[in-house]
């Protein structure tokens, strides 16, 4: 209230003084007054936002009630939702990855799957990078092998307990059972202590892992062991259900499957260099079985049946994302999933605990950076109180159903790329928050510190991190209106407090930096500098100092944070400017990696020179204010000079500044020259005895269709170039370019899908109809007509038939294949017969207005014809052609369920067809009523969207398509 009141009074006083009394008698003075009031308003808004959120933080802390342990044990003892932990990692050292994976694997959650998403380059350029990659690949197996020791022991103990209880009748528990359970708990406790003793202690993160994760868990298990022994000594037996819960809790701690995945191994996945796409690539595979296929471009993942799959990725109920430099306390997953399973949180998509900094930082900059991180923990908890929660990407439990709802699909070449987490900016979690809000999902911050993350240990790496944080908020800001409209449409309340805090979170870095720079650089009119302004900022600084003390820091760290933010002004502004450039140009900002120089990241030249320029400006301002006796401004300039100089010395270091500037100067004067690639001559001489390298094999039609299936508009896309060979048959030509032989053939891109034909009596699939889809989305008939205009329609029709027959080789056995053939190709049996001979399953040719003479030379191939209406024309058609199948079209069956006369006509047609050895197939069945009416009329077979959709062959094998 003090901040708001003083700000309002200052604005009213300044407006009265400058514009009513006339102190701003020139346009320049008037502009100065307006700009200065805007600057004060911007800084006051950020201060008010912090003061409001800390109130919410205290409200939440006061009202928080932890779920008691007995409730969590009951949750573990029941059917728990499935959970997969994803740990995205890029060139992390072995120790960091090990701590993170162990903290994830030791979660007290049954059936846990932990996957390390290795994003390192697959062809390392240095020995260190190679060793790091090999260690990352081997680490999951090592951790899983370690956990198997206690898991197998506890599993055997649980099985023995269950067997003995069954022997006693299935319910009786004796004190000896409790003693054996106590032995299991004591063994597990000792095992965890031993794991901590074997931990390599390099810095404070390792100490924290041992002292705050391993030892507390071990002590808890040891305490339970002691309690069980004491109860057994008093001859007290726990209920059977409670014994089962205690065994299941112990199993849950060590029950984890740990694996790794490298998206860069596959050309079918995105290789965008950012964490979001690393996560998206794996999440997009969830719920599928995949086979590795070698293609000319590299290895691709395509869907496959479970028996042929090289990779099976379960589809979990929840996904836990965890950065590779973070750790979780053992109850993190259990408490958050238990919370999200409660009815009140059914619409919660993301549950998290904003990460805290590791205590015991080794450097000043790491310590003060950790202080700002812990202050942000307060801010995020307070924002939840006002419904303004943002997803903070270091750790979170995500509801998979919500991720599926916000999934966006794009294409890279022929491959379908799924985006659940947006990568348009480098603060991907913030934009995904808006996506979830638009779709009606909420987010929740659990009010306990259950996750900890490393903070940058030096100024160079810190600058890269903070530049990322500042880059993106302005881009996402405009999307708040989408959430506003969506909530209005759902008749949810749009509260001012929520949007004020959201706008402040996304844009305050920009406006605070700009306002501070304006105040530092521009010499404002002395009339605008009023001592009352101190009361605007005093509550903010005093409350932050109190919060720092509450978090375990010093009150004086508030001044250090201010100086720290002064030297970060160029960093924050560069991130904001990058956002504005992306907004104007549409070009995505590059995802910067962290270059290292002797274990310390070099800071950019501008991030060093501009803080030095700021110090020089403060020195000039102090001297100028003394000359003009502007004491109000002198206090502000002197404070900035003192704190920025301290920050530059304490957090950057004079020696490091000189080294980094000299390094940049050397690189500018002596640029690194990359060796030029030697162009190979077109006609290279072959080395004697050396075999000529073979070109990548394109493979047959089935292979091409197989690895290019199921990828959106370009799904299963096949480029077909056909010409006649010397014998007069049509053949594909891949050896010569279209530019040299364009007059001999044309180019078409298509793929084949299969729609099931169902026996509507027993529900079995009896056959499949092959249907063509052109890559440009055009109707196949239009494609054939376009080909006819160019004189290659027969060749194209032959290619469609050849592709359908080849790709159908993988269809389930015992089914036939129905293919469509044009009349023109039908009249060329010498060209059609070799194509039909390639089929490895019974064929049915679906022909249009073919004459009996056209079919005479096809031998024993079965024919299917379309009906010409339920009248004489169809009966005559059946009698003359003698087809094996008659297909009833949409016009015949539409409205059939409501028209008894049409049903009678179809019954007569079925009877007539059976007399002539013909079976009826109904097409275009879209409802259950149509199917039931057709079955009542005696129609045995049917196809249509209700029975099964047309899908690529891989989806047929995976059982996808709605049947």
Please specify the SSE layout and strand pairing.
Layout: H1 2-20, H2 27-63, H3 69-77, E1 83-89, H4 94-105, E2 112-118, H5 127-167, H6 175-197, H7 204-233, H8 240-254, E3 256-261, H9 275-283, E4 288-295, E5 298-303, E6 311-313, E7 318-322, E8 326-328, H10 332-340, E9 348-352, E10 356-357, H11 364-385, E11 395-399, H12 400-405, E12 408-412, E13 415-419, H13 428-438, E14 442-445, E15 451-453, H14 459-470, H15 473-477, H16 480-489, H17 496-521, H18 534-550, H19 557-567, H20 569-585, H21 605-628, H22 631-652, H23 654-669, H24 701-707, E16 718-724, E17 730-732, E18 747-759, E19 765-774, H25 780-789, H26 793-807, E20 816-820, H27 823-826, H28 829-837, E21 843-847, H29 852-855, E22 862-866, H30 872-881, E23 885-888, H31 890-893, H32 900-915, E24 919-922, H33 928-936, E25 941-942, H34 953-957
Parallel strand pairs: 1-2, 1-7, 2-3, 9-14, 10-15, 19-20, 20-21, 21-22, 22-23, 23-24, 24-25
Antiparallel strand pairs: 4-5, 4-6, 7-11, 8-15, 9-11, 12-13, 16-17, 16-18, 18-19, 18-25
How would you sum up this structure, described in words?
With 963 residues, the chain is an alpha/beta fold. Helix content is 52%, strand content 14%. The chain contains 34 helices and 25 strands. The strands form five sheets. It has an eight-stranded mixed β-barrel. It has a seven-stranded mixed β-sheet with strand order 3-2-1-7-11-9-14, with helices on both faces. α4 runs parallel beside α5 (127-167), α13 (428-438) runs parallel beside α16 (480-489) and α25 (780-789) packs antiparallel against α26. It is globular, with a radius of gyration of 36 Å. It starts with a helix and ends in a 6-residue tail after the last helix.
């Amino acid at each position: 209230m003090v901040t708001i009141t003083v700000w309002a009074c200052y604005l009213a006083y300044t407006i009265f003084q400058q514009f009513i009394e006339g102190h701003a008698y020139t346009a320049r003075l008037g502009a100065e007054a307006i700009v200065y009031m805007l600057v004060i308003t911007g800084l006051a808004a950020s201060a008010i936002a912090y003061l409001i959120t800390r109130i919410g933080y205290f409200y939440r802390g006061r009202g928080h009630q932890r779920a008691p342990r007995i409730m969590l044990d009951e949750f573990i003892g029941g059917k728990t939702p499935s959970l997969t932990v994803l740990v995205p990692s890029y060139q992390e050292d072995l120790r960091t990855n090990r701590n993170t994976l162990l903290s994830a694997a030791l979660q007290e959650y049954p059936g846990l799957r932990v996957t390390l998403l290795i994003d390192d380059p697959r062809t390392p350029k240095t020995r260190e990078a190679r060793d790091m990659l090999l260690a990352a690949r081997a680490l999951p197996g090592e951790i899983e092998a370690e956990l198997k020791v206690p898991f197998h022991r506890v599993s055997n103990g649980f099985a023995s307990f269950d067997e003995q209880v069954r022997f006693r009748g299935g319910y009786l528990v004796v004190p000896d059972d409790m003693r054996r359970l106590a032995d299991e708990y004591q063994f597990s406790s000792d095992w965890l202590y031993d794991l901590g003793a074997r931990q390599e202690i390099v810095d404070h993160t390792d100490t924290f892992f041992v002292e705050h994760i391993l030892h507390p868990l071990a002590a808890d298990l040891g305490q339970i062991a002691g309690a069980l022994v004491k109860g057994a000594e008093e001859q007290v037996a726990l209920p059977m259900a409670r014994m089962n819960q205690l065994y299941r809790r112990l199993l849950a701690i060590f029950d984890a499957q740990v694996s790794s995945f490298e998206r860069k191994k596959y050309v079918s996945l995105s290789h965008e260099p950012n964490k979001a796409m690393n996560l998206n690539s794996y999440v997009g595979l969830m719920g599928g079985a995949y086979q590795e296929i070698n293609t000319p471009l590299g290895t691709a993942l395509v869907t496959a049946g479970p028996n042929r799959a090289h990779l099976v990725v379960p589809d979990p109920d929840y996904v836990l994302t965890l950065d590779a430099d973070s750790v979780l306390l053992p109850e993190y997953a259990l408490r958050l999933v238990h919370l999200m399973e409660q009815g009140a949180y059914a619409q919660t998509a993301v549950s998290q605990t904003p990460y805290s900094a590791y205590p015991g930082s080794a450097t000043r900059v790491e310590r003060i950076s950790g202080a700002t991180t812990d202050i942000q923990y307060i801010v995020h908890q307070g924002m939840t109180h006002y419904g303004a929660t943002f997803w903070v990407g270091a750790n979170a439990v995500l509801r998979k159903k919500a991720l599926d709802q916000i999934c966006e699909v794009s294409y890279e070449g022929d491959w379908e790329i799924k985006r659940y987490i947006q990568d348009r900016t480098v603060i991907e979690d913030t934009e995904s928050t808006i996506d979830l809000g638009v779709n009606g999902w909420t987010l929740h911050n659990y009010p306990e510190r259950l996750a900890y993350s490393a903070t940058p240990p030096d100024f160079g790496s810190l600058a890269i991190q903070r530049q990322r944080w500042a880059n993106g908020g302005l881009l996402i800001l405009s999307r708040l209106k989408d959430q506003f409209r969506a909530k209005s449409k759902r008749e949810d309340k749009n509260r001012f407090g929520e949007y004020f805090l959201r706008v402040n979170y996304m844009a305050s870095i920009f406006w605070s930096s700009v306002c501070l720079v304006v105040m530092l650089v521009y010499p404002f009119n002395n009339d605008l500098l009023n001592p009352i302004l101190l009361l605007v900022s005093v509550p903010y600084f005093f409350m932050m100092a109190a919060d720092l003390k509450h978090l375990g820091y010093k009150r004086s760290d508030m001044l250090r944070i201010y100086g720290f933010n002064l030297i970060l002004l160029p960093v924050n502004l560069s991130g904001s400017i990058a956002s504005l450039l992306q907004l104007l140009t549409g070009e995505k900002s590059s995802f910067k990696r962290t270059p290292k120089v002797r274990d310390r990241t070099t800071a950019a030249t501008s991030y060093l020179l501009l803080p030095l320029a700021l110090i020089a400006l403060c020195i000039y301002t102090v001297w100028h204010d003394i000359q003009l006796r502007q004491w109000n401004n002198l206090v502000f300039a002197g404070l900035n000079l003192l704190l920025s100089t301290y920050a530059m010395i304490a957090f950057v270091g004079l020696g490091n500044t000189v080294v980094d500037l000299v390094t940049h100067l050397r690189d500018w004067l002596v640029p690194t020259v990359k060796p030029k690639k030697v162009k190979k001559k077109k006609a290279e001489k072959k080395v004697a005895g050396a075999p000529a390298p073979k070109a990548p094999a394109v493979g047959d039609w089935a292979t091409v269709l197989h690895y290019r299936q199921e990828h959106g508009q370009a799904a299963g896309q096949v480029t077909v170039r056909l010409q006649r060979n010397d014998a007069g048959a049509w053949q594909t030509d891949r050896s010569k370019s279209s530019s040299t032989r364009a007059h001999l053939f044309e180019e078409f891109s298509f793929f084949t899908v299969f729609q099931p034909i169902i026996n509507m009596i027993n529900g079995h699939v009896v056959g499949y109809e092959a249907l063509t889809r052109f890559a440009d989305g055009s109707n196949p008939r239009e494609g054939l007509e376009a080909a006819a205009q160019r004189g290659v329609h027969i060749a194209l029709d032959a290619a469609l038939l050849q592709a359908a027959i080849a790709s159908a080789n993988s269809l389930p056995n015992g089914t036939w294949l129905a293919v469509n053939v044009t009349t023109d190709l039908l009249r060329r049996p010498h060209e059609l017969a070799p194509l039909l001979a390639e089929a490895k399953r019974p064929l049915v040719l679906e022909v249009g207005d073919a004459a009996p003479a056209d079919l005479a030379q096809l031998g024993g191939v079965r024919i299917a014809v379309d009906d010409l209406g339920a009248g004489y024309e169809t009966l005559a058609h059946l009698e003359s052609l003698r087809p094996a199948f008659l297909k009833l079209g949409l016009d015949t069956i539409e409205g059939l369920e409501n028209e008894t006369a049409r049903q009678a006509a179809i019954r007569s047609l079925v009877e007539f067809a059976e007399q002539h050895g013909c079976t009826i197939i109904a097409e275009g069945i879209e409802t259950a009523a149509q199917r039931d009416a057709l079955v009542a009329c005696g129609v045995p077979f049917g196809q249509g969207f209700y029975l099964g959709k047309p899908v690529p062959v891989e989806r047929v094998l995976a059982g996808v398509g709605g049947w």
